[in-house]
Every structure is written in C-alpha cells, then in structure tokens.
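Why should sequence recovery work at all? Because a backbone constrains its sequence more than one might expect. Tight turns favour small or flexible residues, buried strands favour hydrophobic ones, and helices have their own preferences. The token representation captures these environments compactly. In the example below, the structure is given first.
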C-alpha cells in the first residue's frame, strides 16, 4: 500500500514539473501581437523592425507563425527609447550592433550619442549667455558708419560669408543693399539679428524653426522670445537624455541575452 502511494506521489510530482516547464516555455514564447502590445507598436511595425534587423530573426512554428522571445520585446523597447533620444536611423544602427557586434562597439556608439548631447548642452549654455548679452545691447541712435559689410560681419561671427548670404536668402538676417552694386551692408539692428541667428543655430535650431521665430523677435519681444525658445530647447535635450536612460535598461537586458 505504501509503495503504491509513493509511486502515485512520484508520478503526480513528475506531471506537475512537466506542466510547469511547459507553462514556462509557453510564457516565454510571444506572438507578434504580444510584442506589439507590450512595446506600443503595431503588428506591422514589429515585422518591419525584424526586417530591418532591429529584432533578431524570429523562429517559426510548425504552422509558419512567428515565435518571439523576451529578447525581441526588449529590443523593441530599446529601439523605441533610442529613437526618441537619437532619431530612428541611429537607433536602428545601435540596436543592430547589439545583435551583430562586440559589446565594445555598442558601448562606443552609445558614448558617441551621449557626447553629442553633451555638446548640445554646452552650445545651449553658450547660447543662453550670448542671448542675455545681446538682449542688453542698445541699437538706437546709431550712425550709418556703424554698419558692417558681409565680410566684416562674417569675421566677427566666425562664419563664412556664404552663411550670411544663406541667412539673407532665408529672410533671417536681411541686410540693406547699397547702390549701385547692391552691396550688402548690415546695420547694427541687422547685425544683432545675425548674432541671434548664429547663437540659435549653435543651439541646434533648424532654418525652418528660425524662419518662424525671427519675425516675432523683430517686433520688440526679443529677450522674452529668445528665452522661451532656449528653454524649449533645454526641455527637448532633457527629454532625449531621459530616453537614453530608459533605453539603457532594455539594451542591458538584450546584451545579457546575447552573451549567454
């Protein structure tokens, strides 16, 4: 009787162990829709990420369905955060490197991203300091002799004359034309505009953003508008830094999985 009881007990425990193993296996197997829901993507986006090498190749079931694992989910999370921090092109390059390259190369790519953000922070700080100095300048009661030529202003700003001509064409810092050769001459107010454009460009603002910003700056609210613009840039950089921090957690999990 005792032997029979022990035999049943052993068989029961064996069945439970097998059930747990199957349950664990099933829980680790993810469908495309599972990865999509957990990572915040559509099903087609998940497939596209696999096609682009952001996710490692999925295995297939006997019926031909994709079988994803935790590493696919973590890869999708890493890409999502990196895309915010670095843009989609760089994000794909980094996550693909996790799957294909030595860890040292992955870390080098991440170091480059952080270095770029650090440079942007430095440029932003300098732009804030310059904007504060520029806002205190007076442009009233100026004389015609205070104006500057293209080459003089380019040298003062440390840019090429062609850069000033480009800003002129885009309507950002428009000089006067002096007859008969239509030579460009920048008045003190126009020179100030050029300095503002130069500092905001150094802080990362695109030409299209400045086209929208500069008309308001010329209407007399320069200090307030520049401060708001630089503050918005500060928020953007902080959001990208936070996204990189979030990506680190997922990337670490993917690296650990690829090294086992």
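From this structural description, the recovered sequence reads:
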């Amino acid at each position: 009787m005792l032997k029979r009881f022990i035999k049943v007990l052993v068989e029961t425990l064996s069945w439970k162990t097998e059930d747990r193993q199957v349950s664990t296996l099933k829980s680790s197997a993810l469908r495309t829709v599972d990865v999509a829901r957990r990572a915040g993507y559509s099903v087609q986006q998940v497939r596209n990420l696999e096609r682009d090498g952001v996710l490692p190749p999925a295995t297939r079931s006997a019926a031909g369905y994709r079988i994803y694992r935790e590493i696919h989910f973590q890869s999708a999370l890493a890409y999502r955060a990196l895309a915010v921090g670095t843009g989609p092109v760089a994000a794909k390059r980094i996550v693909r490197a996790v799957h294909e390259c030595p860890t040292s190369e992955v870390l080098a790519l991440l170091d480059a991203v952080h270095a770029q953000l650090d440079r942007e922070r430095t440029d932003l700080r300098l732009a804030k300091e310059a904007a504060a100095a520029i806002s205190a300048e007076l442009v009233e009661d100026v004389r015609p002799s205070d104006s500057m030529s293209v080459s003089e202003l380019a040298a003062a700003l440390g840019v090429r004359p062609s850069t000033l001509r480009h800003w002129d064409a885009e309507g950002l810092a428009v000089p006067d034309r002096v007859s008969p050769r239509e030579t460009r001459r920048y008045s003190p107010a126009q020179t100030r505009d050029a300095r503002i454009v130069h500092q905001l460009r150094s802080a990362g603002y695109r030409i299209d953003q400045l086209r929208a910003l500069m008309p308001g700056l010329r209407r007399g609210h320069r200090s307030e508008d520049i401060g708001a613009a630089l503050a918005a840039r500060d928020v953007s950089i902080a959001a990208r830094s936070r996204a990189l921090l979030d990506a680190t957690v997922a990337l670490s999990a993917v690296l650990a999985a690829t090294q086992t």
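A few observations help interpret the result. The first helix runs from residue 2 to 28.
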